[in-house]
Amino acid sequence: MRVHVVSDVHGASDALSRAGDGADALVVLGDLVDYVDYRDPAGGILGRVLGPEVSAEFGRLRTSGGRDELIRFVREAWARVPDAPAVVEDAVQEQYDRMFGALTAPTYAIPGNVDMPRLWPRYARPGLTLADGRVVEIGDLRFGFVGGAPLPPGVEPREGGPWTPHLLRAADFTAAVKALDRVDVLCSHVPPAVPELAFDVVTRRAEASSAALLDVVHRDRPRAAFFGHVHQPLAPRVRVGRTECVNVGHFRATRTPYVLRW
């Protein structure tokens, strides 16, 4: 069997259409949406709707500013757009039409933290498995999937803004992870809570990770744990016991899937 794995596609539909070439299956670990393009401030939903200056300032604040300052800046920027939630949803819908249209069969997909999973069911079709929260057999291996990203303990999801990231309460994310049963390959958007995997050398901070995912690695001892989310990780892979924990890469930048063979 040969399975290709990608994450953090962020609008790269042309490359996504080729990601499954030569594979028996394609696994997509989330972040299909291109919300903000850090390399091109004029790109992404933020740059196209609010302008490159707003997008560039968002990138600066995310790297060097505080979380509250970033949230306040984004809210003020979107407040200038009439019916901003509808504008964002239309932009996301347009991207999803291209992203899901580019997927080859069979594909197993979960959402990342910038995705809008409530829109995904309309794209369900034969050959496309919306795998979040499920254990699926691919070949003779059990793949366990959990999407989104956890919030810190005690932090509630934000509501009411034009764009709400797919961030789950810590307890809800932990419950979804622990419900996965006897996995041979663990698939998530965020990494297990291993410092070298979670730290981004460009943003200079630890991105979201999950102790529950690490617990499953210790519990089930899968052959591999695949994830993305951290675009420039301090370490792209770390072995934990017998499990190879692998950041499959920032697909928008690399255009190359990770290849699993067995």
TrEMBL record:
<feature type="domain" description="Calcineurin-like phosphoesterase">
    <location>
        <begin position="1"/>
        <end position="233"/>
    </location>
</feature>
<dbReference type="Pfam" id="PF00149">
    <property type="entry name" value="Metallophos"/>
</dbReference>
<dbReference type="GO" id="GO:0016787">
    <property type="term" value="F:hydrolase activity"/>
</dbReference>
<dbReference type="InterPro" id="IPR029052">
    <property type="entry name" value="Metallo-depent_PP-like"/>
</dbReference>
<protein>
    <submittedName>
        <fullName>Icc-related predicted phosphoesterase</fullName>
    </submittedName>
</protein>
<dbReference type="InterPro" id="IPR004843">
    <property type="entry name" value="Calcineurin-like_PHP"/>
</dbReference>
